[in-house]
Structure formats: C-alpha cells, structure tokens
C-alpha cells in the first residue's frame, strides 16, 4: 500500500451554535479564540476553522472581530486560518462574506463554501444557487482557497455545477460534514459513497457531528483522509465527559491518527498538501 500523507487536523473551535451553556470552555472574545487556536495548534491542528462571537456569545461575521482574532492568532502561531462564510442560520450573504474583505496580514488563507441548502436541526441553512455562486465568486476574487462544505450527497453534484460554471477549480478541498440532523448521516458507507464522487486529485476531510466526531476522524485516518474536530461540532471527549477545550479533541484526533499509522501534518506540510503558498504579508 502506498504511504499515506500526513493527516491534516482542522480545529473548529467556535462555531455559531455551541454556547457556554453547553460547554463553559467555548471561546467568545477574540483573545479567547486566539488562546484556543494556539492550544489547538500545539496539540496538532494545522487549520483553524473560525467563526466569531459578540461578547454575549451571539454569532457575528464582523470583519473587525474576525480581524482581531486573526491578528492575535498570527502573532503566536502559523496555523492556517480558514474563515467561515456560513456564519449562522438566517444571516444574509452580505453578512456572511464580511471576513473575505480582510486584507494583508489579516487575510484568511482559506474560506468555507457550502454547496447547497440543508435542514439544520429545526432550521434550514440556506445556500441557494445564486448565493453559492456569489460566495464562490467572492472567494475566488479574494484569492482565497475554498473548502467545499458537503452536508448531503447531492452537494457533490452542486460542487460539480459550480466547477462547470467556472466559479471553483477541481481538484478541490472538500469537507464532509456528516451527522447534522437533516443532513447525511455520519456513517462509513455514506463517507465511502462521497469518496467515489471525489474529483481526481482532490483532498478531503471528515467532520462528524456530536458523538460521531472521533469515530469519523478514525474512519478518515484509515482511508488516508483528514479530519475536523472541535466545539463547533461536538463538546464531549467521551460519553458524558465534556472536553476541556477543542484542544483536547485535537489531542484525541492526533492520537487516532498515530494509531492508524499516520503522522500529523504541520501547518507547513498542510499548506504543501493543499497547494497553499507559504504565508507572507
Ligand atoms: N453555522 C452553520 C449554519 C460554515 O462555517 O461554513 C454553518 C456553518 C458552515 O458553520
Ligand atoms: Zn463553521
């Protein structure tokens, strides 16, 4: 069997839905977000998937708040910054895209691009074709690498649609977010189906929701893929045991990677695997 590449671990440390009432260690302020990103980097994460919060914990896509978190993170580590364009359910496209306007030392290296609408618990996370095209065009114009968020199987077809429209390039980097209530289940056969649809040369990551987070990381490790862990998707280290921080979930994922015979990618190795130029201002 060919040797597998180092495993890229993404830390999704903030999210839009997880509150301190769920886990008191959820970071809200930019300084708290930066502290957590640094801890995750030290634990083996090479990408941080960022959302931002107002001081009361409500979700914001404010460029200013994102910019402050990014400034504080980059002063302390070289983790790849991936900003969300999903924000929270109900936000407008304009609102969601604000972090894409950051420039220079604050410019994100990656940004998410959701490839379709999906029931999201009791809500609907809307990504109509016009909205997807608009967000894809903005990511492209900013010169940022997209991560294609796949919440359901048909979103692989929507990604192909965006590629045919000339709005994204293949090969691409995909994130299979599995186990959202309303989306595709966090099952290995679902993951295997998605992998049959992966464009040649693409890279991928699995993000299992809730109790499926670490099992999906293991499934990804065994298949040569990458994994996303952290409070955005899951707050427990094991049944009934709250994680002390997303860093503890990154540590657990790093252990899983090594048990599967993988090394854990450094930020520099992840940039090389993902085709991102070394970060310079
Ligand atoms: N908060 C979810 C509704 C993304 O970051 O791109 C959407 C989300 C996706 O988190
Ligand atoms: Zn997100």
Largest sheet, described in full? 8 strands, parallel, barrel
Q: Tell me the name of the CATH homologous superfamily.
A: Aldolase class I
Rounded Rg:
17 Å
Strand order of the largest sheet: 1-2-5-6-9-10-11-12
- Give the total of beta strands: 14
CATH class: Alpha Beta
| Helix share bin | 25-40%
Uncertain stretches of 5 or more adjacent residues:
none
| Class computed from helices, strands and strand pairing | alpha/beta
Give the SSE order as H and E letters.
EHEEEHEHEEEHEHEHEHEEEHH
What fold name goes in the CATH topology slot? TIM Barrel
Q: What is the straight-line distance between the termini? A: 40 Å
Total of DSSP H or I helical runs spanning 4+ residues:
9
Gross morphology is globular
CATH level-two architecture = Alpha-Beta Barrel
Small molecules held by this entry: (5S)-5-amino-3-OXO-hexanoic acid, zinc ion
Report what the structure shows:
- The structure is a single chain.
- With 281 residues, this protein is α/β, with parallel strands linked by helices.
- The protein has a single domain (9-274), classed as Aldolase class I (TIM Barrel), CATH 3.20.20.
- It is built from nine helices and 14 strands.
- The protein has helices at residues 30-43, 63-74, 93-96, 129-142, 155-164, 188-196, 213-222, 246-259, 267-274; strands spanning 9-12, 47-50, 52-53, 59-60, 80-83, 110-114, 118-120, 123-125, 145-150, 173-178, 203-208, 226-229, 236-238, 241-242.
- The strands form four sheets. Strands 1-2-5-6-9-10-11-12 form an eight-stranded parallel beta barrel, surrounded by seven helices. It has a two-stranded antiparallel sheet with strand order 3-4. A two-stranded antiparallel ribbon has the order 7-8.
- A hairpin with a 2-residue loop joins strand 7 (118-120) and strand 8.
- Helix 1 packs across helix 2 (63-74) and helix 7 (213-222) runs parallel beside helix 8.
- The longest helix has 14 residues, at 30-43.
- The mean pLDDT is 98.
- Bound molecules: (5S)-5-amino-3-OXO-hexanoic acid (KMH) and zinc ion.
- Zinc ion (ZN) binds at residues 15, 49, 51, 84, 86, 232.
């Amino acid at each position: 069997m060919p040797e597998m590449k180092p495993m890229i671990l993404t830390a999704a440390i903030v999210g839009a839905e997880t509150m301190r009432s769920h886990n008191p260690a959820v970071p809200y302020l930019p300084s708290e977000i930066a502290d957590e990103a640094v801890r995750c980097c030290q634990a083996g994460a090479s990408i941080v998937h960022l959302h931002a919060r107002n001081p009361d914990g409500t979700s914001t896509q404010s460029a200013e708040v994102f910019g402050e978190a990014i400034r504080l993170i980059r002063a302390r580590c070289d983790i790849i910054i991936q900003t969300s364009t999903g924000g929270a359910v109900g936000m407008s496209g304009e609102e969601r895209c604000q972090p894409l306007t950051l420039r220079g030392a604050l410019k994100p290296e990656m940004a998410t691009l959701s490839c379709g609408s999906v029931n999201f618990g009791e809500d609907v996370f809307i990504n109509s074709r016009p909205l997807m095209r608009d967000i894809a065009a903005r990511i492209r114009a900013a010169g940022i690498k997209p991560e294609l968020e796949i919440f359901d199987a048909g979103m692989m077809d929507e990604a192909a649609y965006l590629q045919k429209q000339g709005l994204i390039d293949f090969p691409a980097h995909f994130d299979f977010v599995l186990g959202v209530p309303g989306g595709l289940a966090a099952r290995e056969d679902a993951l295997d189906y998605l992998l049959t649809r992966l464009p040649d040369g693409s890279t991928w990551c699995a993000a299992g929701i809730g109790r499926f987070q670490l099992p999906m990381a293991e499934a990804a490790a065994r298949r040569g893929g990458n994994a996303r862990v952290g409070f955005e998707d899951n707050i427990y280290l094991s049944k009934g045991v709250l994680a002390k921080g997303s860093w503890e979930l990154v540590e657990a994922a790093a252990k899983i990677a090594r048990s599967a015979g993988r090394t854990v990618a450094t930020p520099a190795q992840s940039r090389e695997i993902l085709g991102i130029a070394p970060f310079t201002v």
